[in-house]
Structure formats: C-alpha cells, structure tokens
Automatic annotation (TrEMBL):
GO terms for cellular component: cytoplasm; nucleus; proteasome core complex. It comes from the Eukaryota. This is Proteasome subunit beta. Transmembrane segments: none annotated. InterPro entries: Ntn_hydrolases_N, Proteasome_beta2, Proteasome_sua/b, Proteasome_suB-type. The keyword Nucleus applies.
Length: 202
C-alpha cells in the first residue's frame, strides 16, 4: 500500500530502530492530527508500527495486542519476534478474502533474548511478509530511501550513526515527497527493552 504515511526501520547486530510519522490523514489528503501515534506495544521487546485506514489500524492493532497478551498469559512467556511476524502475516492473509479484511501495512521490530539478536520485518495488506531484514520502509516515500541505505548501511552501526542514517532517509523523503511529513517518532529496542528517542523534526 503506497500511502502518504511513512514507516522506517533499521536493524543492527545490537538493536532495531523504528521511525513513524506523526500525521493522521482523512480521505488520503486531509490532515486531521499532527500527533498521531502509529506505535503499538506487543511485548517488552516487541513493537509494531502500523499505517493504513484509521479504523483498520485501530481495530487490527487492538486485536493483535490482545491476542499476543493472551498468548503470554496462557504460556507464561512472550512470543518471539519471528513467531509474532509469522502469526500476524498469517492472520492478514487468512482474512484477506473476507468482508472485514484489514487494509494495513506494518513494520515489526523487536529483540529476541533467546537468540540474542534484533529482528525487523514487515507485512503488507495482502499478507506478504518479509522477515529478518536490515532495513525496511512502508509507504510511498520509502522509494527514496532504499538507495541511501544500500550505500551507507553497516551491521555494526552504533545508535548515533543509525539515527543519523534514518534522518538522511527521512530528510530525502521530506525533500522529494509532495506530502508534508514534518515530524517522526523514534523508538529503539535492544536487549534491555524499548525506549523512545528524541523526535526527528524538519
């Protein structure tokens, strides 16, 4: 779904950073909020950023959060990022040909404490899943960012370098994309948990 929202993610050997714009649109072109939060907490070290139709994002996000919380209650431990990615992809895929399917695209970021590695994956509204990637984008502006990542990405980026690289991608989107996306939330997830970083604003 090549929407006007923009989700970005970068994974290194130690952490994953998720960035999401803060604009909420109505009818695809009208700004209704500049403080929209596209992040959904699925676990202590597992987050999802989601874009799409407002009602679908809200409904799907709540449904995923509650089901993964139920999984934790039943089993006594949280689902791994890779298993969560597979479950989410399957849920969207199985719902695709129903009248209440979800029009959402998402990035899933987390840290697997059993494998001691960060995870980054995406699922689109057709149920197409891409797992274990070093960088991913959802939304039309992502087309401007892949070349930057291809050239500058390294697996051993530190936190400051990774933020600067994401900033370059967001700045390129800001310069070349017709829709105004002035601010982005940043979330980092590592073995110690998740924390928010300073917003990137233009």
């Amino acid at each position: 779904m090549a929407g006007t929202s923009f989700l970005a993610g970068v994974r290194t050997k130690d952490f994953v950073i998720l960035a999401s714009d803060k604009i909420a649109f109505a009818f695809g072109a009208i700004v209704v909020s500049e403080e929209d939060n596209k992040e959904l907490k699925l676990g202590d070290r597992l987050y999802m950023t989601c874009m799409g139709e407002g009602g679908d994002v809200s409904n799907f996000g709540e449904w995923v959060m509650r089901n993964l919380h139920l999984y934790k209650l039943r089993n006594g431990y949280e689902i791994s990022p890779k298993a969560a990615h597979h479950w989410i992809r399957r849920a969207i895929s199985e719902n695709l040909r129903t009248e209440d399917h979800w029009q959402v695209d998402l990035l899933l970021g987390g840290y697997d404490v059993n494998e001691n590695k960060a995870f980054l994956g995406s699922v689109d509204y057709l149920g197409t899943g891409i797992a274990d990637q070093n960088f991913l984008f959802r939304g039309f502006p992502g087309r401007f960012a892949y070349a930057i990542m291809d050239k500058a990405y390294r697996e051993d980026l530190n936190e400051t370098e990774a933020i600067d690289l994401i900033r370059k991608c967001l700045a390129e989107a800001k310069k070349r994309f017709i829709v105004n996306l002035p601010a982005f939330r940043l979330l980092i997830i590592d073995k110690n948990g998740a924390r928010h970083l300073a917003d990137i604003t233009f």
